[in-house]
Amino acid sequence: MSALLTAATLGLVPFVALLACIVAHVLVSRALPELPRHHGLVLGALAGLAALAGLGWGLASQADRTDRMGLGVAWTLTYMSLVYWYVFGFFNLGESARRIRLLVELRAAGDRGLTRAEILTAYNARMIVDARLGRLLAGGQVVERGGRYFIGKPLMLCGAKALVLLKLVFLGAPSEFAGRPPG
Amino acid sequence: MRFVAPGLLAFALLIVAHVVIWRARRPAGEYAALAVLGAGVLAVALATFRVIPVPLGSASGWLPQSPLEHITAIGLYAALFLSYVTTYSAVQADSPTMTILLLIERAGAVGCTRAELRARLDDRVLVLPRLDDLVSGKLVRLDQGRYVVTARGTLMIAPHIRFRRWLRMEKGG
Q: Which of residues 41-100 of A touch B (CB under 8 A)?
């Protein structure tokens, strides 16, 4: 029983580190609202990493000496995966996911709800394109010359191409609209 | 090795099963199906890890044996699963940001204007399919021409609204 309890405690270490990352991210965002959002996320992730190292240092002595390296690698991989989920699967959903934004607008309307026209007044493709283009320009992924847009830093474009490849693998098509008209 | 390899192996098995099943027949409720698949693959992997040390003999040194090794492997698998589902959501629905980048790249040396991007990415491409997703996922119901959030939709959106308030950030999208 004691071995199981020790194992359960040690198994929680990366999850506690994620909690530290989230708390640090919230505190940094509230204390420094002018800080670019990705800087806040990086600070949160580093705080979580520090918590992971601290907890690991303190608790890993309960594991067999020969296992400590493997345990450290497993914790680090687990923590990095959890941070990836937090950034892209939770925080970024509230930041840029269209379904979340639509739900926010509809929830604000209460039981009366909204017609399609009312929804498109509150949130529409024009706003989405402008917001995304603004972020891409700010991040240098896109550059503007004479009112026309060109690719800047190519890293995110590589990500977009990788996603197309994954779409081909999973869906058999390069886009959700392939083979059928949108809407 | 015993802390990392089992989780990675189970995760690789999940990816293979996901691709094979989805290419054969994509389920309607994709995320629920993916959660069931994730749990199923983990159960199969853990059962296999208990059985195969006998035939493998001394070559089974990388398999989990102690409670700590099992719990660490499950934790790693769970974390990889969460990040995998996150990535898959970007595969399942076209991201506007990624589409903008691909359109600009396709335009080549002449580039793209904002008007050209807006013409290609209208409400029928960016908003209405996601509204349909909400209805088909029962997060929103269509009531006499009006879209109303369901209890399930409220349950889903509440943590995001509360969390953005904690962060003191405005509405996203």
A: 63, 67, 70-71, 73-75, 77-79, 81-82, 84-85, 88-91, 93-100
